[in-house]
Automatic annotation (TrEMBL):
Keywords: Plasmid
Species name: Tritonibacter mobilis F1926
Entry-linked Pfam families: Usp
All residue ranges annotated as the UspA domain in the record: 1-112
The protein, known as: Universal stress protein
Length: 151
């Protein structure tokens, strides 16, 4: 089964990437892997404080994931899996793709403001020609209706 890998973060464009991945998976009989990466610099505290903060970050991720997972299950018939990694975002995306041979496409949401498409899109598209997988970039301001039409 081909899986669509999508990154869960706090960005607005994440929503459209989630929608697109779920609709494509539903229409093609695929699956969805939702990856959330906890940056390492969040835990540069004393060991005990860092562990508490790490656990709180995981709880927030699970709560956020459940919102998307419920929509995917109820509306698209797709049961996503959650993967949480710790480290720098781009290396962790690449490591997840390497670790799961069923991942066939990375789906990213692009910001639509003047600052550019966002750091993940910028970093990965610089080397897109050398990556061993395709990337689908979904505009962050694309309407739900347009997303449905193209999937």
């Amino acid at each position: 089964m081909r899986k669509f890998l999508v990154v869960l973060d706090d960005s607005r464009e994440c929503l459209n990437a989630m929608r697109f991945a779920a609709m494509r998976a539903s229409n093609t009989g695929g699956g969805v892997v939702i990856l959330s990466v906890i940056p390492p610099d969040e835990f540069n505290h004393w060991i005990g404080v860092g562990e508490v903060m790490r656990e709180e970050a995981r709880e927030r991720i699970h709560a956020h994931f459940e919102v998307f997972a419920k929509w995917m299950r109820d509306r698209q018939g797709v049961d996503p899996e959650l993967v949480i990694r710790e480290g720098d975002i781009v290396p962790e995306i690449l490591a997840q793709i390497e670790a799961d041979p069923e991942v066939g496409i990375l789906v990213l949401g692009a910001a639509s403001d003047r600052k550019g498409p966002g750091p993940i899109v910028t970093q990965l598209t610089r080397t897109a020609g050398t990556l061993p997988f395709p990337i689908t970039i979904v505009p962050g301001d694309m309407s739900k209706e347009k997303l449905e039409a193209i999937t």
